[in-house]
Amino acid sequence: MAVWIQAQQLQGDALHQMQSLYGQHFPIEVRHYLSQWIEGQLWDAVDLENPQEEFKAKRLLDSLIQELQKKADHQVGEDGFLLKIKLGHYASQLKSTYDRCPLELVRCIKHILYTEQRLVREATNSSSPVGGMMDSMSQKYQQINQVFEELRLLTQDTENDLRKLQHNQEYFIIQYQESLRIQAQLSSLASLPPADRQLREPSLLSKRATVEAWLTREANTLQKYRLDLAEKHQKTLALLRKQQTVILDDELIQWKRRQQLAGNGGPPEGGLDILQSWCEKLSETIWQNRQQIRRAEHLRQQLPIPGPIEELLTELNSTITDIISALVTSTFIIEKQPPQVLKTQTKFAATVRLLVGGKLNVHMNPPQVKATIISEQQAKALLKNENTRNDSSGEILNNNCVMEYHQTTGTLSAHFRNMSLKRIKRSDRRGAESVTEEKFTILFESQFSVGGNELVFQVKTLSLPVVVIVHGSQDNNATATVLWDNAFAEPVSEIHTHILCF
């Protein structure tokens, strides 16, 4: 059965996810009226990492526009008139959007088709008798989405409380200024004749007493509002940290494990798009709460009231910074691993990706990623934060790449298309040791600026282990087999360090 027919039968959150794939970049009407044609094209035959494949993408774009125009021309009668105009408009729109970047159209449609297939597969497996595992996965996904909804409501609640606090504080400041004005009037009575002073003084004294009593009560109320708001933020951050732990320490680690097994002949890892959607939701919620905490701190500085709130806000700010640090540094991953076996003077590729996408505006100052080859011993020292000298075990050509943001898919990634290992430094081998017994890894590192340089992170991640064969040497006769599972003692070969700048 065609994917589009099954996709239209999705329900609930799955249907919402499917609908969110479409927009001005690719209207859902185009998917509907050209569903058979779209699913019949060889989109996977276009290598998005190879700019020379652009001519294939251009042919697909031209064919898509022709099919749309043909569909529009076949519309007749009164009912078909509006559809004819709409389809013609979409043809012009798609040509204008992708004519200069046809590979982006292929990237967009591949993303749509893959996501639809995943949603249909999950819905089918969860309803079948043998879909117990998928059903369990769907329940887990549902729990994650429920927590996100709870976080959304908590964040909206604190936003409302913060606005109320700001309104009350602004009124308090106005009344405080009124008390100063009354005090100034009382002071000026000293220059008046006694009769005039006795006539005006009682009224001013009464006003001052009333305003001061109100200010005392309202100061206590404001302090309570601040403490209540801080306690709500503590609850939100505790839930945020728990949700982030599930996504980063459970789901993302499982994805990395699947990627590792896929390198040894296992099934494709998949599931990266839904991980990115969760990481994007995390980043949005974290940033909203961080901005709220900063606004609360600004209100406290604007009107200092003695109490424990200063210490609480300092603690909250430290906690939210730790949470966002863990998110950014942990979601810098290797989407496409370098080859298991590297040969000097031979081109190879790799792709790194930041799973928070464009949500923290990292792409506004596009980061540059650097790739370095290091030995297994250097990697282990780096994992233990013992290697701070940035030693390398060789030289890689074309090892710098700027991360690019793809608007259609929301991905922020760096595609190393033409790296080449120029030379390698081996450790001394003795006896019958094979070159394949010495393992290396590719270290990718970058610096991310978040929130307009409010926070700057130094991030690093390690590839799965590789072995190196020197071109033109006796290494060519070696049997290059790497068991990635046992290469490093650590189950996940990533490191994350950060520098915070305020």
UniProtKB/TrEMBL annotation:
Membrane-traversing stretches: none
Single GO biological process annotation from the record: cell surface receptor signaling pathway
Any single GO CC term annotated in Swiss-Prot or TrEMBL for this entry: nucleus
Location within or outside the cell: Cytoplasm; Nucleus
Xref: InterPro entries: p53-like_TF_DNA-bd_sf, STAT, STAT5_CC, STAT5a/5b_DBD, STAT_N_sf, STAT_TF_alpha, STAT_TF_CC, STAT_TF_DNA-bd
GO molecular function: DNA binding; DNA-binding transcription factor activity
Transmembrane helix in keyword set: no
Gene3D superfamilies xrefs: STAT transcription factor, all-alpha domain, STAT transcription factor, DNA-binding domain, STAT transcription factor, N-terminal domain
SUPFAM superfamilies in alphabetical order: p53-like transcription factors, STAT, Transcription factor STAT-4 N-domain
Superkingdom of source: Eukaryota
Chief localization: cytoplasm
PANTHER family named in the record: SIGNAL TRANSDUCER AND ACTIVATOR OF TRANSCRIPTION
Protein known as: STAT transcription factor protein interaction domain-containing protein
Taxonomic path: Eukaryota, Metazoa, Chordata, Craniata, Vertebrata
